[in-house]
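Quick one - inputs below.
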Amino acid sequence: MEEQTKCTNCMEQKTKKEVEELLTKYERHKDNLIQILNEVQEKYGYIPPIAQLTISEYLSIPMAEIYGVITFYSRFTLKPKGKYNISVCLGTACFVKGSQVILDRVKSTLHIEEGETTKDGKFSLDATRCVGACGLAPVFTVNDEVYGKATVKKLDEVLEEYSKKE
Amino acid sequence: MKTIEQIEEIRKKIRQELDIRVNSKSSTREKHILVCQGTGCTSSKSPEIIETFRKILKEEKIENVRVIRTGCFGLCAKGPIVIIRPEDTFYAMVKPSDCEEIIHTHIIEGKEVTRLLCKDVDGTMVKKLDELNFYKKQKRIALKNCGVIDPEDIDEYIAFDGYKALEKVLTQMSPGEVIDVVSKSGLRGRGGAGFPTGKKWLFTKQAEGEQKYVVCNADEGDPGAFMDRSILEGDPHCVLEAMMIAGYAIGANKGYIYVRAEYPIAVHRLSVAINQAKEYGLLGTNILGTDFSFDIEIRLGAGAFVCGEETALLESIEGRRGQPRVKPPYPANKGLWGCPTLINNVETYANITKIILNGAEWFAGIGTEKSKGTKVFALGGNVVNIGLVEVPMGTTLREIVYDIGGGIPNGREFKAAQTGGPSGGCIPKEHLDTPIDYESLSEIGSMMGSGGLIVMDDTKCMVNIARFYLDFTVSESCGKCTPCRIGTKRMLEILERLCEGKAGEEDIYKLERLANSIKKSAICGLGQTAPNPVLSTLKYFRDEYRQHVLYYECRAKECKALAKIEIDPEKCKGCGMCKKVCPVGAISGEIKMPHKIDQEKCIKCGSCKQKCPFKAIG
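Output:
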C-alpha cells in the first residue's frame, strides 16, 4: 500500500515537471489558459489535478476558476480516456443518416454511457458534433481512424477487431 | 522581406507556371495531378494517394508531372477526388491502389481510366469537373482558390492575385475609401445574422480607442456545417489578407483567429500560412514598405458551441468560460480587453479581397436586392451530392436540392430542409421555391445561419429532429441566463415525452408558449434562436406532433417507443437480404416466403429497411 502511494507521488512529480516544462513557452498571461489546457489535454488525454495546480500557480489563477474553464469546454476532461476512444458523430448530417442507432449500439455492447470508460480502461465513448466527414455520414472514429458509411454490422466488426487487440 | 516589385515578379513567374491549372488549352507539356486534402477526403486516405503517386513517379522516373495537394473541390460524396490538369479529367472515389493505373493509362498512354470516371445523377459519364450538374449552377467567389492552389504554398496564392488587394489598399486607398467600397458592395455578415459588413467596419473605425483589434470567427459550431473549415483548409491566405485590409481600414495592428481545435488540418494550414506571410514581410512591421504594421495570432477553441457568439468568443480569447456579454456595448466599442474590436466570419473575409480587386459594383451585381454576392452551403443529409456548394443569393432551395444536390437518394421523397443549424428552422416542401436570401428565409421561420443545409427525407420524424436540436442546445447552453438554461431543458423534457408517447395535447401548447418566451427573454443570439427548430416544425408539421399525442403514432417510424418495424407480406419476395443484415437475428423466414420480424428481439436499427430492395419493410 505504502509503495503504491509512493508511486502515485512520483508519477505526480513527473507530471508536474513535464507541465512546468511545457509552461515555459507561455508568458504569464491569463489569456493563455485555454491554449495551455488544450496542450495538456492533448498530451495526457485528460487534465490531471497536479497539472491544474501547476497551471494555477504559474498564471496566478485560482484553482476554482481553472476548474470552471475545464468543465465549460467539452474538449477538456477530468478523467482519463480509454485506450481506444470511440467517438460517434452526432452532427446533423450524421444524425439524419442514423448515427443515433450506432451510438446506442456502442452503449449496449460496451455497457458504458457517453463520457464513460470501460472498467478495464480499454474503451471510452464520446458523442461528438461533426468530425467534418459529412460526405461519409454516418461516421464514427476510433482514436484517429475514421470509419465512414457506418452500419450496425460494420460497427460490430470494428469493435470485435479492437476487442481482440491488446 | 519582399518589396512590392519582388512580389509582382513572383506573381508573374508562378502564374505562368500554373496556367495549366485554369487553362485547359495550355500548351505546356507538364501535367499536374491535383489531390483533394480537405478533411473529408483526408478521412478516406487521400494523403496516402499523394504518397503513392509520388512514389510511382519517382520509381518510373517520370518527369514533368507534379502531384499537388489542394483544398476541397466540393463534391465530398465522391471523394477522394483526383483531377488531372490541363485536360481537367476528374476521377472519383480513388483508392491508393488505383494510382498505378492512373499513371500508366492516363499519364503514360494518354487514355482515360474509364472505370474511375464519375457518373452524374442522370447516368451520363462525366469527364470534366464542370460538366457535372453539381457545378453548373454554382458561382465560386469565396471558394475561388479552393481546389486550384496548394494551400501550403504562398507563391501559388500570390500567383492568383494573392496579396494584390492588400497592395492596392495600402498604396492607393485611404481607410475611408476601403470602408466605402465594402459598404457599397452590400456585403453582409456570413456568420448568420447578416449585419452589413461595411457598417460594422465603420462603427469600429469611429470608436474611440488607441488599441483596436480584428478578430476572425472560425468557431464553426453548427453541427453538419463545414464551409469555414473548407475555406481555411483550401485558401488560408485569403482570410489573412482580408484581416489585414480590415486592420488598415479600422486602424488596428493586431488580429486573432479563433478556430476550433477540432479542425487540426485548418489550424495547421493557418499556421503555415502565417509563417510564410511573415517570411515574405506580408505580416509584421512596415508591410510592403509602408508604415502599416499588422500581426495575427491563432487562438484555439475547445469545443463550446456558444463561443460562436461574438461576445462569448471574446471571453474565450481572454481565457475564460465562453459566456456571452450583455449587449450593448457592442464589440465595435468595447470588445477584446475593452478595446474596439471588429469581428467577422471566415466567409465574410473570404469575399473581401475579391471585392477590393473587382469593385463594389461587380459584387453588388450578384444576388438579390438586399442580399448581395454568393453564399456557401454545406449540403448534407439525405441528398445524393453531399458537399460544399457556392451559389448566388436568390437561388431557390429547389435548385440547390435537386439541380445541384441531385435530389433524394433511395427513391425517397423530400420532407424538409434545415438551414441555420440549431438556430434555424425546417423548411417544408411547399417553400422549396423560396429564393435563398436573409429576408426570405427569416420570413418562413428559418434563417440563413452560417450555411449548414441538411436535407431530410420522409423517413425523418420532425418531432424527433426538434428533440435532437434541443438536446444539442441544452448541452451547449452556457448557463448564464435562466430562459436558456432552464427553459430549453424543460422544452427538451416535453419533446422527450412526445417521442416516448407519454405526452398529452396540452404539452404542445406548453411547448409553444415556452418557446415564445425564451425567444423574447434570452440574453444572447443563440438563446433567442434556440426555440426556432421547435417553432418551425410546429408551424409546418403540427399534425405530426398531434399524431404523437393523440394516436401515439410516429409516421416516420423513427420514435422507437412508438414505432414497430414490420414486413409487408404482400411485397416481401423472401430474398433473405433483411435476415442477413439484421444484427440481432430478429428476422426469420424461408427463402422465397414472406419473412417476419420478432418484435421482442428487434432493436429498431432500421438496417433491414434500408436493405430491402422491394420496400416491403416499414
